[in-house]
Design brief:
Radius of gyration: 16 Å
Number of helices: 5
Oligomer: single chain
CATH architecture: Up-down Bundle
Number of strands: 0
Distance between the termini: 24 Å
CATH topology: Four Helix Bundle (Hemerythrin (Met), subunit A)
Shape: elongated
Length: about 150
């Protein structure tokens, strides 16, 4: 039974929409709205990353007896995305559309590739291997559901 993939993929879509909303506000030069939307987006992404880094990845690593591998790659990509979030925040503070859209274009491509790897590879592996996935999914939902 698949429980982790649909939950986390759904949250990816939620985060993607928040990001699109912030980009739209920036395209309208509505920097106040963009700031608020970007804050909602980064809060949702932080909840998502915490759910993975504190719950999902350790459970996967324990069941597979693997330290590193795909979870290490995902953690590294999370760190890179956090840097892009900081660049977006600085661009909004400066009301710089060039800086904002430079960082947002990079982030959009990065997130698409990252989500594809998680949804196509890592989450299905978690659903296949983690035996208490329903309980884990409930705990994940408590973290990501709060940001939805």
């Amino acid at each position: 039974m698949s429980t982790i993939n649909p939950l986390m993929a759904s949250h990816h879509k939620h985060c993607d929409q928040l990001f699109a909303d912030a980009e739209h506000a920036a395209s309208e030069n509505d920097w106040n709205a963009c700031k608020l939307l970007l804050e909602r987006f980064t809060a949702a992404m932080d909840a998502h990353f915490r759910a993975e880094e504190e719950l999902l990845f350790p459970a996967f690593e324990q069941i597979t007896d693997t330290r590193g591998g795909p979870t290490e790659v995902m953690r590294g990509e999370h760190a890179q995305m956090r840097e892009l979030f900081a660049s977006l925040t600085a661009a909004v503070a400066a009301a710089s559309d060039a800086d904002f859209f430079g960082a947002s274009d990079t982030l959009a491509v990065f997130m698409e590739q990252h989500n594809r790897k998680e949804e196509g590879i890592l989450y299905p592996m978690c659903d296949d291997r983690i035996t208490d996935r329903e309980q884990l999914a409930e705990r994940l939902h408590r973290l990501v559901g709060a940001s939805a």
